[in-house]
Amino acid sequence: MYRVIQWATGGVGKAAIQGVLRHPELELVGCWVHSADKHGKDVGELIGEEPLGVAATTDIDELLALDADCVMYSPMLPDDQVVAKILRSGKNVVTPVGWVYPDRENSAVQALEEACVAGNATLHGSGIHPGGITERFPLMISGLTAAITHVRAEEFSDIRTYNSPLVVREVMGFGLTPEQAMSGPMATLLEAGFKQSVRMVADELGFRSEPRIRSTQEVAVAVTGTDELVVPMEAGTVAARRFKWQAIVDDKPVVTAAVNWLMCDVELDPPWTIGEKGERFEVEVTGDPDVLLTFKGLQPETVAEGLERNPGVVVTANHCISAIPLVCEAGPGIKTYLDLPMITGRAAPDLAR
Ligand SMILES: NC(=O)c1ccc[n+]([C@@H]2O[C@H](COP(=O)([O-])OP(=O)(O)OC[C@H]3O[C@@H](n4cnc5c(N)ncnc54)[C@H](OP(=O)(O)O)[C@@H]3O)[C@@H](O)[C@H]2O)c1
């Protein structure tokens, strides 16, 4: 059994705890919480289930002193110093907050590599988008085709299910003017991760792409105002956003990662829609032959269901949890999908051998 500590109990953290509990090779031994009012609470209680006999704590040193193999690190704001401390204490780290394909020339990345070596530990960045749809799955299906000219990974999501007014308005920029939204933090927050994914695909497929990954962003505004959504929206304020990151060869894109976020059912200017296929993720490899893969099920069926438990959040957690046994067996250092064996899920407990 691999002994796991969960770091933070937000949406991803709660799903990760459930993932650990259902995984036959994993055992939950500790849990860090950011919120002081969660300190000392049983982790089972924090996820709305039976007590587990594991108390949550805000005390980092107490957790680092535990005998544990791996930390699932999913706080809202990542802290390199904390990650380095965890690695130095000899614990592996899986996380959806970065390091999917980090730049090894960057001094902050080098410091984490050193922490890995000092603690004989591994750091693995994962997730869904980025951390799955944008690089692992395109690379996987790229093996089916030849003479590749373009790879596209694209999200189409309805933001009505994002139940955090603060994040939706202040971070994602919905309900703000186009100027406020475009100059807000979202593009910068997203691009660190997505640029790594685009770079990973371009490098691995051998494109002679420019070193710079091109970023673009566009917005669509609400034609009429509404108070019915997660944030109030006046006419002319942002109700949809589109971001794109592209690797370029000879002025043409060869790898594209894109995000389309729409407040569906709001009339938009320009008149974007999510399309007849609805919410989805698409991966398309243009080559001989062209291959198109559409992922359904990673977004909720209804707005109400999404507000309760969002499958995208659960998938993000599962992708990290599924990697834990492989990460625990890997050598020290930052290990990407290119370094690890195939990451798989496990049978439901009542069907397992
Ligand atoms: N790569 C991907 O595909 C992907 C997908 C989804 C999310 N993510 C990332 O995963 C992380 C967690 O997402 P989430 O949906 O679980 O977020 P969330 O629901 O907002 O919760 C994050 C948790 O972070 C803790 N927290 C609050 N303020 C904090 C602070 N100032 N510093 C450190 N921790 C703080 C809290 O933990 P306690 O409740 O324990 O006190 C909170 O519940 C985010 O960084 C998000 O960007 C990545």
From TrEMBL:
Assigned keywords, A-Z: NADP, Oxidoreductase
InterPro entries associated with the record: DAP_DH_C, DapB_N, NAD(P)-bd_dom_sf
An MF annotation (GO) of this entry: 4-hydroxy-tetrahydrodipicolinate reductase
Any one Pfam family match given in the protein's UniProt record, by short name: DapB_N
Residue ranges of domain 2,4-diaminopentanoate dehydrogenase C-terminal in the record: 139-344
Keyword DNA damage: no
Organism superkingdom: Bacteria
Domain Dihydrodipicolinate reductase N-terminal: 8-71
GO biological process: lysine biosynthetic process via diaminopimelate
Annotated protein name in UniProt: Dihydrodipicolinate reductase
